[in-house]
C-alpha cells in the first residue's frame, strides 16, 4: 500500500510559512541594524552640534584662550534626557581648559587630527559615543587647533533604536499575519478544483460510464483525460461484451426455434408413454432456453438503448396498453382477466418508449408466469412528479425476503425453472434509468402489487 | 566656615524629639557640620543618614512623619551649606567612600553634576513618577519641592509705593532712592552659596539687559551679601535690611506666617522656580531605606506634610494665601529650573570662575 503523503494544502502552507518566517527573520535583523544606524546618526548630529557650539565659544583674550561653556550646547545634548555628558576643551597648546581631564582625545593618535569624528568608547565604566571637533586659531599670540571632545552615554540612542526596531517588528508581524492569511486563502482557492473533481467522481453512479466533464485547470487536465480514457476503454469493453451476449443470444434463437419445431413434430408421432414423458420435459426445457435467449437479447438491447437513445415524450397509457397486448399471448391455456385503469388525461413521461414497454411487459410476464390464477389489474396514476404503474395480481406474490434479490440479474431464478432471473432486473434497470424505481407491496387487502415509478420530467441520460 | 550657630528649630515641630535630639558638633576635615539625631519611635532597627543643605526646621516634620511609617528608623541629619555638601560628596565619591544615605540640596545643579559623574544611584519607587518631568533626571536626582524665588521687604519700613513688582522695578528703585537703600538690600553671596550662584546664573540667562542693570544697581547700593536665606530674612524682619532679593519663597513665607513684618513679592516679569533636590549617593550604605525616604518625599502624604508645614507650595505650584504678585503657574511667569544635564554648564569650573569674577567685580568692588 502506498505511503500516506501529507496533503497538498499542508505541504504548500508549510513551505510558504517557512519562506515567510525566514523572510521575517531577515527583515527584522535588517530593521534592527538600520534602526541602530538611524539612532546613531540622529544623536551623532546632536553630539557634533554641541561640540561645534562649544568650540565656537572659545575666545582669545589678551593672548590667553578663554571658554564660557554655552548652556545651549548642553540643552542640545539634554534632548537625550537620560544620558550623562562628559566634555573636555583643550587649547592649542594641548592644555585642558575645562572639563574632564581623563576624557581621552580619540584622534590624538592620528596623523592629521583636524577633522571632526564620532566614535564609540568607554568612559568611567560606561559605553559612550565620543565626538571630537577642532577649531583653528591663527591669532598672532596663539596659533594652532583648539580641540573640543564631547561624550555622551548611549541610553537615548539605545531607546530610540529599540523603539524603531519594535515598530518595524510590529509592521513585519502584521505583514506576516496578512501573508499567512493570504497564503491559506490562496492555497484553498487554488486547490478547490481538486476537491470539485473528487466530489464529481465520488458522486458518480457505479454504472455511469459517461465521461467526466468537470471543468478543471490545465494542471489537472491530464488526470481527467486519463480517467476519461479509462472510462472510454471500459465502456468499449462493456459494449463489446454486451454485443457478444446479444450476438450469442441471437445466434442461439435460430437453432432453438428449429429445435422447438422438431420437438413439436416429434410430439405428433407415436411414442411410448415413457417416451412422451421425456419429450414433454424436453419441450419445457427448450421453451425455457429460448425465453432465456430472448431475455438476454432484450437485456442487451435495453442496456444499449439506455446509453444510446435520448429521451422523448411518451404517453404512458398508450404505451401500457400496447405492452399488455404484446405481453399476454393468445395461446394462454387459462382464462385470465386483465384490466387497465388509466387517468383520463394522457400521462406523459420523458423516456425511451421501447425500453419502457419492455419494462412493463416484463412485469406482466412475470405475473402471468408465477401465479395470477385469474386476474391482473394494471393501474396508472400520478403521484407528485412521478408517474406510477401498479401491476396487481391475485397470485401468491414474492416473499419480502426475496424482494432485494429479484431485482438483481440472475438474483432469484425461480425454483420451478419457469423464470430466467432476468425479467425484473431489466425492469429495475429501466426504472433507474428513468429516474424512478421498482418496489413491491405485499399481498394483503388487495393482491400482490409490483410498483414501477418513473420521473415525469425524466432525467438527462446520455 | 562654621556658620551654624543660632539654630531656629520651631518648638512645636520639634517638641517630640527635642529631649532626645543629640546635637553634635562634628569635625570632618575642613568642614564643620551639626548633626541632629531623631531617635526611632519604635524599637531601633535601622539608621538613615541624611546629609542636607536645607533648613532643619523645614525637614523636621517630614522626618517625624516618615518615622511614623517606619517606626524602627533612627534618622541622623548632618547639615551643610550647599557648596560644602557638594565638595564633601564629590570627594567621597572619588575616594569610593560612603557619605550618608540621602543627599538633600537646594542646589540641584550640584546634584546633577554628582549624578553625571556617576556618584548617584538609580532609585525605584511607586511614587517617583509623581515628580514632574523637569524635576527628575535619570531617576537619580529628584526635585521634591516647588520653591518660587521671591523678593521680600520689610512691611514696616518700605512704603507701598516703593515695593518693586519686577526685576526692572527693583533696579530702578535702587537707582532712584539710592540713599535710602544703600547698604540695606541683601542677597546671596554667590561665591559661598550654591543656590545663590544657580539663581544668579539663571537671572543672567533669563534677561540680558535687566540683569546687567540690576547688578549695577545692587553694586551701587552696596548690597549686603550673606551665605543663606535665613540670615537675610532675619535682618529684613529686624529692619536692619529693607529688601531681600532672590529669596527662597518657602522660608520667607514661614517667617510671614510667624507674624514677622515681611512682605513677599513674586516678580511679575518672571519668577524662577527651584526644586530642592534629593539623591542617593553611589556608595550609600542603606540604599533601600534611602529609596523609601525619597519615595516618601514624593508621595501624597509626604507632599501633604511638606505643603502644610515645611514648604507651603505644592509641587504643582499651588501657592498659599498672602503672597503678592500673580499666580506663577497660571500666569505663565514661572521659570522652573530643569533638573537635567543643562545644569552641567552652570557647574563648569571655567564658566563658574568667570561668572563669579564678573559678579564680584560688579557687587563687591563697587562697595566702599
From TrEMBL, chain A:
Q: Which UniProt keywords apply?
A: Kinase, Membrane, Phosphoprotein, Transferase, Transmembrane, Transmembrane helix, Two-component regulatory system
Q: Which reaction does it catalyse?
A: ATP + protein L-histidine = ADP + protein N-phospho-L-histidine
**Coiled-coil spans in chain:** none
Please give the InterPro entries that the UniProt record associates with this protein: 2CSK_N, HAMP_dom, HATPase_C_sf, HATPase_dom, His_kinase_dom, HisK_dim/P_dom, HisK_dim/P_sf, Sig_transdc_His_kin-like_C
Task: Report the GO molecular function annotations.
Answer: protein histidine kinase activity
Q: Which SUPFAM superfamilies does the record associate with it?
A: ATPase domain of HSP90 chaperone/DNA topoisomerase II/histidine kinase, Homodimeric domain of signal transducing histidine kinase
Q: Which Pfam families match?
A: 2CSK_N, HATPase_c, HisKA
Q: Which residues form the HAMP domain?
A: 188-239
- Which sequence ranges are marked TM in the entry? 12-33, 169-187
Q: Where in the cell is it found?
A: Membrane
Q: Where is the Histidine kinase domain?
A: 247-458
EC number(s) stated in the UniProt entry for this protein: 2.7.13.3
Q: Which domain of life is it from?
A: Bacteria
Q: Which PANTHER family match?
A: SENSOR HISTIDINE KINASE YKOH, SENSOR PROTEIN QSEC
Kindly provide the name given to this protein in its UniProt entry. histidine kinase
Organism, scientific name: Ancylobacter vacuolatus
Automatic annotation (TrEMBL), chain B:
Show which residues constitute the signal peptide.
Answer: 1-32
| Biological source species | Ancylobacter vacuolatus
* Transmembrane parts of this sequence: none
Q: Which SUPFAM superfamilies match?
A: Periplasmic binding protein-like II
UniProt keyword list = Periplasm, Signal
Name of the protein this chain belongs to: Iron(III) transport system substrate-binding protein
Q: Which domain of life is it from?
A: Bacteria
Q: Which InterPro entries match?
A: SBP
Amino acid at each position: 500500500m502506498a505511503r500516506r503523503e501529507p496533503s497538498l494544502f499542508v505541504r504548500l502552507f508549510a513551505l510558504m510559512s517557512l519562506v515567510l518566517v525566514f523572510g521575517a527573520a531577515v527583515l527584522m535583523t535588517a530593521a534592527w541594524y538600520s534602526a541602530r544606524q538611524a539612532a546613531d546618526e540622529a544623536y551623532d548630529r546632536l553630539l557634533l552640534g554641541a561640540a561645534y557650539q562649544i568650540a565656537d565659544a572659545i575666545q582669545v583674550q589678551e593672548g590667553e584662550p578663554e571658554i564660557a561653556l554655552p548652556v545651549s550646547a548642553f540643552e542640545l545634548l539634554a534632548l537625550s534626557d537620560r544620558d550623562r555628558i562628559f566634555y573636555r576643551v583643550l587649547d592649542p597648546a594641548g592644555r585642558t581648559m575645562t572639563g574632564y581631564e581623563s576624557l581621552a582625545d580619540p584622534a590624538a593618535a592620528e596623523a592629521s587630527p583636524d577633522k571632526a569624528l564620532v566614535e564609540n568608547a568607554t568612559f568611567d565604566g560606561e559605553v559612550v559615543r565620543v565626538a571630537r571637533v577642532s577649531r583653528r586659531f591663527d591669532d598672532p599670540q596663539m596659533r594652532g587647533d583648539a580641540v573640543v571632545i564631547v561624550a555622551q552615554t548611549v541610553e537615548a540612542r539605545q531607546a530610540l533604536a529599540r523603539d524603531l526596531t519594535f515598530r518595524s517588528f510590529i509592521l513585519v508581524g502584521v505583514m506576516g499575519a496578512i501573508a499567512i492569511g493570504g497564503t491559506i486563502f490562496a492555497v484553498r482557492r487554488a486547490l478547490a478544483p481538486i476537491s470539485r473533481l473528487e466530489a464529481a467522481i465520488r458522486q458518480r453512479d457505479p454504472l455511469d460510464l459517461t465521461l467526466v466533464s468537470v471543468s478543471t485547470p490545465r494542471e489537472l487536465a491530464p488526470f481527467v483525460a486519463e480517467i476519461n480514457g479509462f472510462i472510454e476503454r471500459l465502456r468499449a469493453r462493456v459494449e463489446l461484451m454486451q454485443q457478444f451476449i446479444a450476438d450469442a443470444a441471437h445466434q442461439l434463437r435460430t437453432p432453438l426455434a428449429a429445435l422447438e419445431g422438431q420437438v413439436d413434430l416429434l410430439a405428433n408421432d407415436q411414442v411410448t408413454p415413457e417416451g412422451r414423458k421425456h419429450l414433454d420435459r424436453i419441450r419445457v426445457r427448450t421453451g425455457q432456453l429460448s425465453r432465456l435467449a430472448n431475455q438476454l437479447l432484450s437485456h442487451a438491447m435495453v442496456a444499449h438503448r439506455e446509453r444510446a437513445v435520448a429521451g422523448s415524450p411518451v404517453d404512458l397509457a398508450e404505451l401500457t396498453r400496447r405492452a399488455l397486448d404484446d405481453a399476454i399471448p393468445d395461446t394462454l391455456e387459462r382464462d385470465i382477466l386483465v384490466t387497465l385503469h388509466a387517468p383520463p388525461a394522457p400521462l406523459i413521461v420523458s423516456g425511451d418508449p421501447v425500453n419502457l414497454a419492455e419494462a412493463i411487459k416484463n412485469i406482466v410476464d412475470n405475473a402471468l408466469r408465477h401465479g395470477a390464477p385469474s386476474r391482473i389489474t394494471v393501474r396508472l396514476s400520478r403521484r407528485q412528479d412521478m408517474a406510477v404503474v401498479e401491476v396487481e395480481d391475485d397470485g401468491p406474490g414474492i416473499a419480502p425476503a426475496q424482494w432485494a434479490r429479484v431485482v438483481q440479474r440472475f438474483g432469484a431464478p425461480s425454483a420451478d425453472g419457469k423464470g430466467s432471473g432476468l425479467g425484473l432486473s431489466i425492469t429495475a434497470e429501466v426504472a433507474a434509468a428513468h429516474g424512478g424505481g421498482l418496489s413491491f407491496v405485499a399481498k394483503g387487502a388487495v393482491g400482490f402489487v409490483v410498483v414501477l415509478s418513473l420521473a415525469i420530467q425524466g432525467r438527462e441520460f446520455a | 566656615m562654621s556658620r551654624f550657630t543660632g539654630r531656629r528649630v520651631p518648638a512645636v515641630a520639634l517638641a517630640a524629639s527635642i529631649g532626645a535630639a543629640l546635637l553634635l558638633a562634628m569635625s570632618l576635615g575642613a568642614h564643620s557640620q551639626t548633626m541632629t539625631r531623631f531617635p526611632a519611635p519604635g524599637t531601633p532597627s535601622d539608621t538613615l543618614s541624611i546629609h542636607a543643605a536645607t533648613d532643619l526646621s523645614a525637614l523636621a516634620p517630614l522626618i517625624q512623619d516618615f518615622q511614623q511609617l517606619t517606626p524602627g528608623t533612627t534618622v541622623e541629619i548632618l547639615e551643610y551649606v550647599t557648596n560644602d555638601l557638594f565638595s564633601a560628596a564629590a570627594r567621597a565619591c572619588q575616594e569610593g567612600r560612603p557619605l550618608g544615605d540621602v543627599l538633600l540640596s537646594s542646589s540641584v545643579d550640584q546634584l546633577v553634576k554628582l549624578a553625571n559623574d556617576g556618584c548617584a544611584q538609580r532609585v525605584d519607587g511607586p511614587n517617583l513618577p509623581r515628580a514632574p518631568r523637569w524635576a527628575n533626571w535619570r531617576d537619580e536626582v529628584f526635585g521634591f519641592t516647588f520653591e518660587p524665588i521671591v523678593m521680600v521687604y520689610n512691611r514696616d519700613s518700605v512704603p507701598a509705593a516703593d515695593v518693586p513688582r519686577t526685576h526692572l522695578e527693583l533696579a530702578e528703585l535702587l537707582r532712584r532712592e539710592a540713599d535710602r537703600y544703600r547698604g540695606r538690600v541683601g542677597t546671596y553671596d554667590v561665591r559661598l552659596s550654591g543656590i545663590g550662584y544657580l539663581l544668579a546664573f539663571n537671572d543672567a540667562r533669563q534677561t540680558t539687559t535687566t540683569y546687567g542693570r540690576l547688578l549695577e544697581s545692587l553694586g551701587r547700593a552696596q548690597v549686603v551679601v550673606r551665605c543663606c536665606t535665613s540670615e537675610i530674612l532675619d535682618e529684613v524682619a529686624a529692619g536692619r535690611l529693607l529688601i531681600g532679593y532672590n529669596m527662597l519663597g518657602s522660608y520667607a513665607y514661614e517667617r510671614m506666617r510667624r507674624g514677622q513684618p515681611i512682605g513677599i513679592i513674586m516678580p511679575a516679569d518672571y519668577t524662577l522656580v527651584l526644586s530642592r533636590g534629593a539623591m542617593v549617593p553611589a556608595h550609600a550604605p542603606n540604599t533601600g531605606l534611602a529609596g523609601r525616604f525619597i519615595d516618601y518625599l514624593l508621595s501624597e502624604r509626604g507632599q501633604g506634610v511638606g505643603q502644610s508645614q515645611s514648604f507651603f507650595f505644592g509641587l504643582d505650584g499651588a501657592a498659599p494665601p498672602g503672597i503678592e504678585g500673580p499666580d506663577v503657574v497660571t500666569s505663565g511667569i514661572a521659570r522652573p529650573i530643569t533638573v537635567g544635564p543643562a545644569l552641567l554648564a552652570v557647574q563648569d569650573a571655567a564658566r563658574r570662575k568667570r561668572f563669579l569674577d564678573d559678579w564680584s567685580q560688579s557687587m563687591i568692588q563697587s562697595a566702599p
